[in-house]
Amino acid sequence: MLLQNKQVAIVGGGPGGLSTARLLQIKGAQVTVYERDVNQEARVQGATLDLHEESGLEALRRAGLIDAFYSHHRPDAGKLRLVDKHAVIMLDDHTAETAYAEDRPEIDRGPLRKILMGSLKPGTIVWDSQFVSMDKHQEGWVLHFRNGQSAYADVVIAADGANSSIRPYLTSIQPVYSGVTIVEGNLYHAAKHAPALNDLVKGGKVFAFGDEQSLILSAKGDGCLSFYTGCKVPETWMRESGIDFTSRDAVRTWFMSAFGTWDPVWQELFASDELYFIPRPQYHYPLDQTWPAHPNLTMLGDAAHRMPPYAGEGVNMAMQDAFELADCLTSDEYPDLQTAIEVYEKQMRLRAMEITRVTLENTALLHATDALDNMVAMMQG
């Protein structure tokens, strides 16, 4: 095996990095995951994830975790309601007339992460290890972390997300702004604080459209509602708007202005003091991006191919990266690690190119003047 007697470092403990660690350990590789969070409870996990047959679910099958997934997934979480800005329902997966097929089963991010973490050997994850830099050393790398610790690895895999600190060691290609910025929020105890919206979501999802804007709500198994506003604003809007995104009142004031023609029911999103908001300008990498393969360094997931969320492919792409990379690194058909990495990266970039194209088409469609009509027509086939 190409990884015989080699130490692999995976930087980033999201689904992509954890899936890679699990799949490599099954093949007998020595793997350490370095995660910036202080512990597994340090950060609120975002919206539910729908896993696709050929990618996310396939990764879990190969990892021997598909039964655990179905023990924790949420069967009705994928049921969708399409509504206009006045919360009038235009299409409803909950109605008897609609044949709902669970072809992309849903799971909350927290349970998925726990399933993957629980499958790893004890001590695999090193917490409180935020990557700062790394230096070439012998045939590998010495990684340096903010906590002052350092570690050697023969092979480094960047799974550290859209703002990857390792990607610049591979390529200088910069991301392109999509034209849309999301404000992500999480509302706790939704049944208490936002009863009308909680009833509207009905344990599933709501996609609302109007004025070239989007508002996506997802119910979580813990009683929270996660939501994402989507607005066409300049790339510099986040820093030039003057909005204090740590302040509920400041974000609510912005929302009431930006979504001023929307029904007041949406303002329930701000009815609780238990809220958080994160502005996220949406970027993507050029469809034709490329870089030379390295013998001891590669990347996966958003670090390699960040894109807006409007095709539901982010986690699925990362988990498919995981099993394709693990296969290449543990294969006997390649003469060396550089060749194995080159094969993986070529097929990954081709796949990402097509998914990015589709995602950008969806991003434009969901923020067009006729977004709701387009979505209803699409969902009705």
Write a brief structural summary.
By secondary structure, this protein is of the alpha/beta class.
Give the secondary structure arrangement, pairings included.
Layout: E1 7-11, H1 15-26, E2 30-34, E3 49-50, H2 56-62, H3 66-72, E4 80-84, E5 89-92, E6 106-107, H4 109-118, E7 125-126, E8 131-137, E9 140-145, E10 150-153, E11 155-158, E12 176-187, H5 190-193, H6 195-201, E13 205-210, E14 213-219, E15 225-232, H7 237-240, H8 248-258, E16 275-284, E17 297-299, H9 302-305, H10 314-329, H11 337-366, H12 371-379
Parallel strand pairs: 1-2, 1-11, 2-7, 4-13, 11-17
Antiparallel strand pairs: 3-6, 4-5, 8-9, 9-10, 12-15, 12-16, 13-14, 14-15
Helix pairs in contact: 1-4, 1-10, 2-10, 10-11
Question: Would you give an account of this structure?
Answer:
The chain has about 375 residues and is an alpha/beta fold. The protein has a domain at about 5-45 and about 115-175 and about 285-365: FAD/NAD(P)-binding domain (3-Layer(bba) Sandwich). About 30% of the residues lie in helices and about 25% in strands. The chain has twelve helices and 17 strands. The chain has helices at about 15-25, 55-60, 65-70, 110-120, 190-195, 195-200, 235-240, 250-260, 300-305, 315-330, 335-365, 370-380, and strands at about 5-10, 30-35, 50, 80-85, 90, 105, 125, 130-135, 140-145, 150-155, 155-160, 175-185, 205-210, 215-220, 225-230, 275-285, 295-300. The strands form four sheets. It has a seven-stranded mixed beta sheet with strand order 5-4-13-14-15-12-16, sandwiched between helices. It has a five-stranded parallel beta sheet with strand order 7-2-1-11-17, with helices on one face. The longest helix is centred in the C-terminal third of the chain and has 30 residues, at about 335-365. The radius of gyration is 21 Å and the shape is globular. It starts with 6 loop residues before the first strand and ends with a helix. It comes from Niastella soli. Its cofactor is FAD.
